[in-house]
Amino acid sequence: MHETMKTLAIFLSFACVYSTLPAGAATPDDQIAALKKEKDEALFKIQDIVNQPVTHLKRTPDMVVEHFTDWGKHDVVTPDFDTVDIRATQQKMFDGCQYVTCDLNPGEVFIGTELEFNEMTKYFYNDFTVPKKKLTEPEMVEINQLCRVIGRCNRQLDELENPESPLAKVHQMITDHKPIILAIIVVLAVALYFVHKRQSQKAE
Hints:
elongated; 7 strands; four-stranded mixed sheet; alpha+beta
């Protein structure tokens, strides 16, 4: 009887998965639009975090200032959204500097301890003429989670925009026939339950 209930639970779990497929995304175009919106929202949230304002100060002769050539505009890397952990690439290279500046900011300085450099966040910079705020642990964790959303959306968009792939065909088949598939799963689950129940009764 234990095996019967275990098998039934598996079938019902599949039924739950199918029942939660988005009903409003019936066509590939609808699904593509929804995924692009979700991806853009995640991207904009990351940009808001990465591009937070930093303190700008007017340079005075008494300031001890460390000079840099730029804020990392060159060689922008697209992160692997499925695996990137920006905590591992955060560099607190300005912590030892009271003030910093670069050729792009004549007459201005920034407070070193407020800043960071991170190779994996350059992809999200809106402005390369200013340094970037040092991110907190919760902010970096949130960015990692949002990157996973972008990675998932990219994979699903690829499946939908390249319909010849087997995975895309399966996805589309499930979406197009969700009510029928769900009904079949439920019927099979119930039938399996009664078959096992009858066999158990005979064994007794």
